[in-house]
Design goal:
Elements (H helix, E strand, L loop, with lengths): L3 H18 L1 H28 L3 H9 L4 E4 L8 E3 L6 E3 L15 H4 L5 E13 L4 E8 L12 E5 L7 E5 H7 L6 E3 L6 E9 L8 E4 L5 H10 L8 E7 L8 H8 L4 E4 H5 L8 H4 L10 H36 L1 H9 L4 H33 L1 H8 L10 H27 L3 H6 L10 H23 L3 H26 L8 H12 L1 H35 L9 E4 L8 H11 L2 E10 L17 E5 L7 H4 L3 H4 L2 H8 L17 E3 L3 H6 L4 H8 L3 E3 L10 E7 L2 H9 L7 E9 L11 E3 L1 H6 L4 E10 L5 H14 L4 E4 L7 H30 L1 H9 L5 H50 L15 H22 L13
Parallel strand pairs: 5-10, 7-9, 16-20, 17-19
Antiparallel strand pairs: 1-11, 1-12, 2-3, 4-5, 4-11, 6-9, 7-10, 8-9, 13-21, 13-22, 14-21, 15-18, 17-20, 18-19
Length: about 950
């Protein structure tokens, strides 16, 4: 008794034999299905291998210790923490009281009898073969068994003496040093010998050196402070190991939290407590979005959409291959029917072809994914900057990905299978094509989908501010256009009467054989629609960004700012800019400095102070001074105050403290401020003001010099004036509308000195004769790196968007998909129309007709797909931009209600005509020429089958 098993077994054998016989077509379809499986499988393996287990994470963080104790600087106040020790906050309520700060005594929190290993990390500038390199300095006895796993030794050994260090391999590569080299630090006379190299598994690109505790950080810090320079700022934690094997439980961690210490425990990481047992998570307002249902749903929806669209594209490309395969085997399928087979047997054979190709693609894609990921593991690790935990192969996930290949193969073969099963036995055996009628249902369904999708997208863009609604409606409309493709292909046939012979034959053949033309056109349509939509949105967004761009300096101007070390490296930096760039005017600038000359701009170290520009009470913005502006002012009052000059805010960000700059008239020249009165005022010792709010009723500007920062903070908390000496300066106010690029005032060094105000070198502003080139900027970067300073370099080049790169990449991608889909359709058309080609040759058609016909067949498919895709792609982008405009206008109105100052949102819709021109002209033309070039003109005549 024959069962379904036997019939499917026979069908699969026939399908496998047919796939082996037609190796070219089978390889093409297999490659289309296997490549996405290869990519997704490789991504899955990379992500899973890079995800560390709790055991691997603890080994890299703690070595062989049970826990790491760290000081959160909360003054020893009891605190709440998460199980990982990454998030914490004080246990008490400090809304009304000062927030706790200050060190805690970690050593008192360490249990008696526990083994302890000190781990300190600071930074310093180390001398290299290229200059100076800012490097992390870590003092940890790395050779101790408790630290095993934190650092992976490469060459040599870890330091054993105070004059020895080890360095990361990345530091050695960046510095030009090697194991055995001498190493010195800037500001310290002592020399250290590099005795080994190592890597940090979680930070392969780290520049770090390792020394024994007390060997490098303390001497360097002492030397730097003696020179009145910023110290190494070490941060010390403690690795702790208990005598027993139980480690630190969650209850023990909470007890230690009561002493103001954060604990990262191995035992807690391996066996974390329930969420309900974590007090931090129970506090009001604590929410982790990444763990919420909304986030998980959004992530699943995004993944499902991408997978669905990818499968649709593959089915559209692979479907015609199965259709022509079935047509080539029509005599074989007719013999099946003649020997008692019914329609479901024929369908099984064609579906078997899809199953065979799908399974083969699944196996090939999965094997290649595993092999390539394993072979490229070092490259992937270097790119990600971290070592894999282990090569993690998850059979269920890879099996699910492989199942997509099988499902894609079956889906691609469904329509060809149904079509082949409807053909009569007589037509199959004689090779007749029969009269092919287009489905009348599919266009109706497509038209309905287009109407519904357009209505949803229109509603989303005009009535809501939800991007999801617009995107969903656009996707439905695009699927409707795909369903309408056969009918639209038929409409294109009406223009054939005005075309020459070869294009007319190509168009007629495409229209008559919509079964293979429509899927290829739909595949091109889908790729082009996505490209046009993204290109239009990107170009529009880029135009919006360009319109809202606020320059930091005049075009071509340059600024260098050094805020640390009291400006010690400023002269070297100024000279580097002068020698590397085409400088026209150089304006050296300084900043007000309160305290030691070595104080950094915002330093709160001992002996360092701050200054405050005193804004007269009458000039202060009421909205900013109010504790609750929403209740004190009505919406109308807040809108009115938003236009008040007292509440004006500068759009330009400046790194200069309070916008107060010390410099001469060259600063005005560089900034393009043409005000002779301002230059005269500087020469007379006045302050040039760019913000009239700072001027008091006497026509002067007051600046308070604060030497005791702690006392000033306490006074501010009590709503009192902070203590400090007040300096008054005569003022010249520039005309309204003067663009000072974020500066609030400018004074000369002589003016500051005469008032008894200390200054420190800050940097320089430059105007240039021409915009610096990339080579000049690279040279400057190299010279600045030699100084070892943290330098803020700005070169005002105007708005520079990345649209051109994005549009080029999208155009190339769409072109490749278009040429591929059109090429597939052309190859299948040639195989399907072999009889027509032989007839043309028999009646005396020139040899070039075959070549030109092939080119026009490819071009016709490309043109139809590009035209339809361009029309389908512009509309979603417009809908998204309209939605974005509504959202921005809503935010703009809310900001005005709060008294904000800003321009009305500008959300343009820009069509990337260059991209459309490339897609509409260059891509079809290139596809046609490529198809014509690869087609052979001559073909041996064969005897045509009798019809």
């Amino acid at each position: 008794m024959k069962t379904w098993y036997h019939s499917w077994r026979a069908a699969l054998r026939i399908a496998r034999r047919d796939a082996v016989r037609n190796k070219g077509r089978s390889f093409l379809v297999l490659a289309m299905i296997a490549l996405p499986i290869l990519g997704v499988g490789a991504i899955d393996l990379t992500i899973r291998s890079s995800e560390l287990s709790a055991t691997e994470t603890m080994e890299r963080e703690l070595g062989d210790a049970d826990a790491r104790f760290s000081d959160p600087e909360l003054g020893g106040e009891p605190l709440l923490q998460d199980p990982e020790g990454e998030a914490y906050q004080p246990k008490g309520d400090f809304e009304e009281n000062p927030y706790p700060e200050g060190p805690a005594d970690i050593k008192k929190a360490i249990p008696a009898g526990a083994a302890v290993l000190e781990d300190s990390v600071g930074s310093g500038r180390l001398r290299t073969t290229h200059g100076l390199l800012n490097t992390d300095i870590r003092e940890l006895k790395a050779a101790d068994p408790m630290a095993r796993g934190i650092m992976r030794l490469g060459e040599g050994r870890f330091p054993e003496k105070s004059g020895e260090v080890a360095a990361t391999t990345h530091f050695l590569e960046a510095s030009g040093l090697r194991v055995g080299s001498k190493l010195t630090a800037r500001g310290l006379d002592a020399e250290y010998r590099i005795v080994g190299s190592y890597e940090l598994p979680n930070a392969l690109d780290a520049n770090e050196v390792n020394a024994l505790p007390g060997a490098l950080l303390a001497p360097l810090d002492k030397a730097l402070k003696a020179a009145e320079l910023p110290g190494t700022q070490p941060d010390t934690t403690y690795l702790v190991k208990l005598a027993g094997s139980g480690g630190f439980t969650w209850n023990m961690v909470q007890e230690i939290n009561n002493k103001g210490v954060v604990v990262a425990s191995r035992a807690v990481a391996l066996d974390p407590p329930a969420r309900a047992d974590i007090p931090l998570y129970q506090k009001e307002g604590w929410l982790d979005y990444n763990e919420s249902t909304v986030a998980q749903t959004a992530e699943l929806a995004a993944v499902g959409t991408v997978v669905g669209l990818a499968m649709l594209e593959i089915c559209l490309l692979a479907g015609p291959a199965f259709a022509v395969g079935a047509r080539r085997s029509r005599r074989q399928l007719g013999l099946v029917g003649a020997n008692g087979g019914d329609r479901h047997h024929v369908r099984a054979i064609v579906l078997g072809g899809g199953l065979v190709i799908g399974v083969s693609a699944a196996v090939v894609g999965t094997v290649l994914a595993i092999g390539l990921t394993f072979a490229l593991q070092p490259v992937l690790e270097d790119y990600m900057g971290a070592r894999f935990g282990s090569f993690d192969i998850r059979p269920l996930e890879l099996g699910g990905i492989a199942l997509l290949a099988v499902l894609t193969g079956l889906l691609a073969a469904i329509v060809p299978a149904v079509t082949a099963s409807r053909q009569t036995v007589l037509a199959s055996l004689t090779g007749r094509r029969g009269v092919r009628k287009s489905s009348r249902v599919l266009p109706v369904v497509g038209l309905i989908a287009v109407a519904v999708g357009a209505a949803i997208a229109l509603y989303g863009s005009l009535m809501t501010d939800q991007f999801v609604i617009v995107a969903g409606g656009s996707a439905i409309a695009e699927l409707g256009v795909v369903a309408l493709t056969p009918a639209l292909v038929g409409l294109f046939g009406r223009i054939g009467r005005w075309l020459p012979l070869s294009p007319r034959l190509a168009l007629r053949d495409s229209v008559r054989n919509r079964g293979r033309t429509a899927p290829a056109v739909a595949a091109v349509l889908a790729a082009i629609a996505g490209t046009v939509a993204v290109s239009t949105y990107t170009a529009s967004n880029d135009a919006q960004n360009e319109a809202s761009y606020v320059p930091n300096l005049p075009h071509g101007a340059v600024s260098v700012i050094v805020t640390e070390g009291g400006g010690r490296d400023v002269p070297a930096v100024r000279q580097a800019v002068q020698q590397s760039l085409p400088v026209e005017v150089r304006a050296e600038v300084e900043r007000i400095n309160v305290g030691k000359p070595s104080c950094s701009m915002y330093s709160d170290e001992e002996g360092c102070g701050q200054f405050q520009v005193i804004v007269p009470e009458a000039n202060q913005c009421p909205l900013w001074e109010s504790d609750d502006s929403e209740t004190e002012f009505t919406t109308a009052e807040r809108r009115k105050l938003g236009k008040d000059w007292r509440c004006w805010q500068d759009d330009v960000f400046t790194e200069v403290d309070s916008g107060v700059l010390v410099g001469d008239a060259n600063v005005l020249k560089v900034l393009g401020i043409k005000d002779p009165a301002a230059e005269k005022a500087l020469a007379e010792g006045k302050v040039v003001s760019f913000d009239k709010r700072n001027i008091n009723k006497d026509g002067k500007i007051d600046i308070r010099l604060i030497t005791d920062i702690e006392a000033a903070d306490k006074a501010i908390e009590q709503d009192k004036e902070p203590p400090g000496e007040i300096k008054s300066f005569p003022v010249h106010q520039t005309p309204e509308g003067t663009n000072a690029y974020g500066l609030s005032m400018l004074m000369t060094p002589a003016t500051a000195k005469a008032a008894g105000v200390g200054t420190a070198p800050l940097g320089a502003y430059y105007s240039t004769t021409s915009l610096p080139t990339s080579a000049q900027q690279q040279k400057l970067d190299g010279e600045i790196n030699k100084t070892g300073s943290e330098v803020s370099l700005r070169i005002e080049k105007g708005y520079v968007g990345e649209t051109s790169i994005v549009l080029l990449a999208l155009t190339v991608f769409a072109g490749l998909v278009t040429i591929g889909a059109a090429g597939i359709a052309t190859g299948l058309a040639q195989a399907d129309a072999e009889a027509d080609l032989k007839t043309l040759a028999a009646v005396g058609a020139p040899a070039r007709v075959r070549r030109t016909l092939s080119g026009f067949q490819c071009g016709v498919v490309a043109v139809m797909g590009v035209v339809l895709g361009s029309a389908a792609g512009v509309l979603p982008a417009i809908g998204l931009r309209l939605t974005e405009e509504r959202a921005q206008d809503k935010w703009y109105q809310e900001a005005l209600d709060q008294g904000g100052q800003m321009a009305a949102p500008y959300v343009p819709i820009v069509v990337p005509w260059g991209t459309l021109a490339a897609l509409l002209i260059a891509v079809p033309l290139g596809a046609a020429l490529l198809a014509a070039l690869v087609t052979r003109s001559h073909r041996t005549l064969g005897r045509r089958a009798a019809t």
